[in-house]
């Protein structure tokens, strides 16, 4: 899979380990920055990741900021993005399996590289369970987005 990765300055340190984890799992990385510790605005990077996923340029995305909250809020403003802040492996795989999560959000100042590696692995190895109860709920989420 192609995985879009983007971060503001608050997630810069974690970004490199996330990229290494994605590559180690055999996926291609589309790096949307930032590459500098200078202060930048998280919505720009969440938008780059989200738009790459929605356009089909990437199959999934990973957005990082200091807490993970900002990129989650910003990414979810893009129609077609289902972003979730996950700091545990269960939420990362269950979000994909039940909710068709397509953008994983992480807090670079909240978790370290070892946990991020496990979360990224859980997120990228999971697949949506195309069962009636999950598709029914996803359809309702999409209807909310279209209101």
Automatic annotation (TrEMBL):
- Keyword list, A-Z: Isomerase
SUPFAM superfamilies from the UniProt entry = Ribose/Galactose isomerase RpiB/AlsB
Q: Which residues form a coiled coil?
A: none
Question: What Gene Ontology molecular-function terms does this entry list?
Answer: intramolecular oxidoreductase activity, interconverting aldoses and ketoses
Catalytic residues, chain numbering: 65 (proton acceptor), 98 (proton donor)
Instruction: Return the Pfam families for the record.
Output: LacAB_rpiB
Question: Does the keyword field hold Isomerase?
Answer: yes
The entry's family comment says: Belongs to the LacAB/RpiB family.
What protein name does the entry list? Answer: Ribose 5-phosphate isomerase
């Amino acid at each position: 899979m192609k995985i879009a990765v983007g971060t503001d300055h608050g997630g810069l340190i974690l970004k490199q380990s996330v990229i290494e984890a994605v590559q180690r799992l055999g996926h291609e990385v589309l790096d949307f920055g930032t590459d500098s510790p200078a202060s930048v605005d998280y919505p720009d990077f969440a938008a780059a990741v989200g738009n790459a996923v929605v356009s089909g340029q990437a199959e999934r995305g990973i957005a990082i900021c200091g807490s993970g909250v900002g990129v989650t809020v910003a990414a979810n403003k893009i129609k077609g993005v289902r972003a979730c802040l996950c700091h545990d492996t269960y939420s990362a795989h269950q979000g994909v399996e039940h909710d068709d999560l397509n953008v994983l959000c992480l807090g670079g100042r909240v978790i370290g590289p070892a946990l991020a590696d496990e979360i990224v692995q859980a997120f990228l190895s999971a697949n949506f369970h195309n069962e009636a109860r999950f598709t029914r709920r996803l359809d309702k989420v999409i209807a909310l987005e279209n209101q």
